[in-house]
Every structure is written in structure tokens, then in C-alpha cells.
Design brief:
globular, 485 residues, alpha+beta, three-stranded antiparallel sheet
């Protein structure tokens, strides 16, 4: 029989890979119980009920029996750490006990998919208090909640403010016999995911470590004349072969030359398939995921290793913005203000290079950076999702409606143990340049002859992952950054 993973209280992909303690998830459940008990609106006798992710086809509407490698739904992973699909999980607020419900699979399942773990094996693997089968769930749930009647079910339903999608509340046969609440759980568990525990921070450090090493491997091996997908393949091989990361956190962005100005390049319509030519700047945005803990690192450099003077102008502007934010990042600071700081630094350097002209304060007043050069936010939370949750929860600043600022994935005040990306950029996007030149509010700052020299060159993004400490920020992404490096 194959060796279980997690095993002996840890998830690990073997020697030289990280060992993630399963007690991490018990601590998350404890935090959740404490937070919900302090909420006076939670009904007495409540239990949290979560439904894990389900196996699916290759895409919506697919009728085949082949699908992608399963990856757990992030709230379920945060709570239980379960790798397999089609589970349910409960946390009883009265007792703090945790129960998993696994699907009851037929014996013949073992012929195709291997050993079917027993309830005792699942209990040992994930260190929960009890494991039952999903066909027992409706009857077993009635015994929970610490009371004489059926417990009140707290279901997870709420928006992801990045994707616009809603979480899926648990559903099962027999649910009509229970009282349910769909609004109380989501804001509480999302807020808990905003700040990380020491164990979560270690997992995120490891994901960054293997991603950093893989980015440096790509720098050493990708040459002019190769295609963009070969950089993607090199990264994915390295993080899996050497780091044990079967998944990446998002579609790899491997932009060479003008492709670097496409913010989420690499999708099905632009699948990292262009030739990287000598002299091109490349923008490689890759991040490994280890046991559902994410990283997100972007490196930009000239493929031949030699910066031209024009490339230096843009690169150094973005690097200076990145480091200005890194040095200013600490608890109590507004993320929106840090975004504007990065915008200001880039505008200063573009003005010094003669691409722009005029007063920087006037440029900031019309949001020149956000409307032309960096049409995205300066970063985002990162954790069990690459764009982690909690950016616009109730009680925190709302999303700005202005271009550039409306792309901010959060506008919150920074707190200790938040984990975020710092990713200023500067891109030369024909559509935005043309629109700016036709707009008198913006064109008065742009030196058309000079900006036209940068058309088709793509863009630069420098993205690092950081942990907020009491009076500073810890840089987890360790890759070459300066022109000299």
C-alpha cells in the first residue's frame, strides 16, 4: 500500500521539501471557534458546515471522464487541510470538535484509483476528532451543537471581491430539517484568513523559496530564440522536480517583448507561444503552490542580459517604486497610500527621462500613472489563494471608482502578519497611450516623440511577496533585482 501523505502529523513531498504540520489547521479551527463565540449574533447550538471541492471535467459543460488534477477549495483547505475531493467538514462551536465526512466509495474503486482510505486512516491523516461517511451526515449532524434539538448550520456564502464569484454554501440531502444561516460565517472566516499564523508564514516562505530558485533557473537557461512557453515549462519543472510543487497558483505569464504589456498574458488566446528575440525585455510572472500555499513573483530583464539605456530607465523606475513601498510598509499604513507612493516614484523617473513633462503633483491629481502606465493595483493579499480573500470586507475602506485605483485589490490599513505582494509596473500599451494622447487632461504631460520610442517594448513588473512585521516588512522573494545583479 502506498505511503499516506499527510503522515505522522505532517504533509511533505519528501527529502529537501517542507514539512507542513497538520496542527496548522487545528489552530485555524480554534481561531474560528473563538471568533464565532465572540459574535453575539451567532445562534446557540451552531456548527460550521463546509463543503469541500468536487471533482470536475476539463471545463464547464465537459462530458468526458477526464479532468484536471484536483485542487482543494481554499476555505475548506484553510480549515481542514484535506487533499481529496467530495468531503464535508464540521466544526462544533459548543465543543470545538471537528468532524470530516468522506464519500463512501465502492470497493471496486480500488482497482482504478488505488487503496480507499478507511475512516480511521482519514482521522489519523488529518488529525480531526471524528470521521464519518457522507451518507451518515444528515442523521449524525442532529447529535451536534450541544443541545437537545438539531444544530443551527452556519454555511459559507459570500462574495470574492477579486473574482466577483460567490462561495458555494454546503448542500446535502436532508438539509431541509435544519435551520441554516448563510450570512454570518463568511465575513468572520474571511477576516481570519487576512492575517497568518506562524505555521502559515513558514509554508508561504517555502513556496517563495522554491519559486525564487526556479526563477533564477529560468534566468540561467532561457536564451534568445526560444519560445515563451519554454520559460514556463522550465519553471514548472523546477518547482515540481526540486520543490515538490505539483501546482502553480495561476496561469504562468511568460511575456517576451510586446507581450510583456499584456497584464494577464498566457491565457488560451495568447498561450506563451511567441519567439523571444535578442534584445527583448521579458516579463515572467510565475508562482509555485505547495500544499495550497501560494507564491507570486515577477521578474523582468533583457533576455540577452544587457540593459539598453531605455530599458534601464523603465526598469530602475519600477525597482525604485518597489523598494520605496517595501521600506514604507508597516502596520498602520494605508495600502492605498502605498499604491500612490509607487505611482509617484514611477512618474518622477519618467519625467527625469524626458518621457513626461510637467509637475508631478498635477500628474497625480489626474491619476496619470493609473490611466496610462500602471492600470492595475500595487499588490494583493496572498495565502491559500494567490489573490487571497478579505480585501473589501465590511468595516474597511470601500473600492475606489477611479481608473488604476479601482483595480486595487484592497485599500485596507496594514496589520501585522498580513502577507501581500508588492508589484509596481510600467507598461507601454498602445491603446492606453493613444487614448491619453487624445485626452487634453493627460496629453499635456506626455512628450509624444519620446513615448513613441517605447511603443512595442512591452513592460516591466517587479513583484515580491512580503510579510508585515511589527515595524518592518520581510522580503520572501529572493531573486536578482538590480541592473548590476
Amino acid at each position: 500500500m502506498a505511503e499516506a501523505n499527510p503522515r505522522d502529523g505532517y504533509f511533505s513531498m519528501g527529502p529537501k521539501t517542507a514539512s507542513i504540520p497538520i496542527e496548522l489547521f487545528a489552530l485555524n479551527r480554534q481561531r474560528l471557534v473563538e471568533r464565532l463565540k465572540n459574535n453575539p449574533n451567532i445562534p446557540k447550538g451552531s456548527v460550521v458546515l463546509l463543503q469541500g471541492g468536487a471533482d470536475q471535467g476539463r471545463c464547464e459543460g465537459d462530458s468526458s471522464d477526464v479532468g484536471p488534477v484536483f485542487r482543494q477549495e481554499s476555505y475548506f483547505h484553510w480549515t481542514f487541510g484535506v487533499l481529496e475531493p467530495d468531503f464535508y467538514g464540521v466544526v462544533d462551536l459548543a465543543t470545538g470538535r471537528s468532524i470530516l465526512y468522506q464519500p463512501r466509495l465502492p470497493e471496486d474503486y480500488a482497482i482504478i484509483m488505488g487503496h480507499v482510505p478507511t475512516a480511521e486512516e482519514i482521522k489519523e491523516r488529518y488529525r480531526v476528532d471524528e470521521v464519518r461517511y457522507t451518507d451518515e451526515m444528515a442523521s449524525h449532524l442532529k447529535s451536534l451543537g450541544g443541545g437537545q434539538s438539531a444544530p443551527h448550520l452556519l454555511l459559507l456564502e459570500g462574495p470574492n471581491t477579486d473574482s466577483g464569484k460567490m462561495t458555494r454554501p454546503a448542500a446535502f440531502d436532508g438539509m431541509a430539517h435544519f435551520q441554516v444561516n448563510r450570512s454570518l460565517l463568511h465575513p468572520e472566516i474571511a477576516e481570519l484568513r487576512v492575517t497568518k499564523t506562524p505555521q502559515e508564514l513558514d509554508a508561504l516562505r517555502y513556496a517563495n523559496k522554491i519559486s525564487s530558485l526556479a526563477h533564477m533557473h529560468v534566468m540561467r537557461t532561457v536564451k534568445p530564440g526560444m519560445r515563451e512557453y519554454q520559460a514556463e515549462a522550465s519553471f514548472m519543472h523546477h518547482v515540481y522536480f526540486y520543490g515538490g510543487a505539483r501546482h502553480v497558483c495561476y496561469t504562468c505569464i511568460a511575456g517576451g517583448g510586446s507581450s510583456g504589456s499584456v497584464l494577464h498574458y498566457g491565457h488560451a488566446g495568447a498561450p506563451n507561444d511567441q519567439v523571444i528575440r535578442d534584445g527583448d525585455m521579458v516579463l515572467f510572472d510565475f508562482g509555485a503552490e505547495y500544499y495550497c500555499f501560494c507564491s507570486d513573483i515577477t521578474c523582468s530583464w533583457p533576455i540577452n542580459g544587457k540593459f539598453t539605456e531605455k530599458q534601464k530607465v523603465v526598469y530602475n523606475a519600477v525597482l525604485r517604486a518597489n523598494r520605496a513601498v517595501l521600506h514604507a510598509l508597516r502596520p498602520g499604513v494605508s495600502w492605498r497610500d502605498l499604491h500612490l507612493l509607487a505611482n509617484r516614484v514611477v512618474l518622477e523617473d519618467l519625467t527625469a527621462a524626458g518621457i513626461l513633462t510637467g509637475n508631478i503633483d498635477d500628474m497625480m491629481a489626474v491619476n496619470l500613472a493609473g490611466r496610462v502606465f500602471q492600470p492595475h493595483g500595487m499588490g494583493h493579499f496572498i495565502g491559500c489563494d494567490v489573490h487571497d480573500v478579505g480585501g473589501y470586507l465590511a468595516g474597511h475602506p470601500e473600492r475606489d471608482s477611479n481608473p488604476g485605483l479601482r483595480s486595487l485589490r484592497t485599500a485596507r490599513e496594514i496589520r501585522e502578519n498580513m502577507v501581500l505582494t508588492i508589484e509596481p509596473g510600467c507598461y507601454f500599451i498602445d491603446f492606453l497611450i493613444d487614448r491619453a494622447l487624445a485626452d487634453p487632461d493627460l496629453s499635456r504631460f506626455i512628450v509624444e516623440e519620446r513615448i513613441n520610442e517605447y511603443r512595442g517594448t512591452g513592460g516591466v513588473r517587479i513583484e515580491d511577496d512580503v510579510i508585515v512585521h511589527r515595524d518592518s516588512a520581510e522580503l520572501m522573494s529572493i531573486v536578482p533585482r538590480t541592473v548590476e545583479e
